Amino acid sequence: MQTITPWIVATLTILAWHIPAAFEMAQQSPSWHWIQRATFFATGLLFWWPVVRPWSTVALPRFAIPLYLFAATLPCDALSAFLVFCDRVVYRQYLAAPHVVTPALEDQQAAGAFMWVSITLIYILPAIVLTVRALSPARQRGGNRRTDTSSTWSRATAEP
Asked: Are 77 and 120 contacting, i.e. CB atoms less than 8 angstroms apart?
């Protein structure tokens, strides 16, 4: 499997389920909602596989992992920005729902902002940890080198 495949599949899954017709179908049908959640879970596992590396079947070079994670923020950021800055409610079902605290458009904007910040942090924080570990003086001197097959994330977050 190519290392870009998990990124493409996960990105397309997120974007496809946010198309209004697909989103509304998943919200109105318990079966489709289950399928939506299952595809999010499966493609999420597929996406993180090259980063976590439980086995070395799909291996990104260590220097590429932060770039892989950063690139994953871009489509999600675009979707989130669209939801935040859109001047209309994207998902019609929210117009019919009762809104006690905020109108539907403000609710959509808040959800988009939450998605924007949380997704960015979820992808960027591991990228920062891996970058700092890769550039640390101990790693450059070879003092903290390991030859075991433990995951990249475990090595990146392990105490020196």
From this structure: yes
- Quick: pLDDT tens for 78-97: 999 999 999 999 998 888 87
Helix (H) or strand (E) holding 64: none
| Contact assessment for residue 133 and residue 156, using Cβ atoms and an 8 Å cutoff | yes
Backbone angles phi, psi at 126, to 5 degrees: -60, -35
Amino acid sitting at position 152: T
Residue 154, domain member (yes or no): no
Domain hosting residue 35, numbered range = 4-138
What's the one-letter identity of residue 38?
A
Tally of CB atoms within 10 A around 89 = 18
Q: Look up the pTM and report it.
A: 0.75
Structure token pair of residue 18: 């946010």
Number of domains in the chain: 1
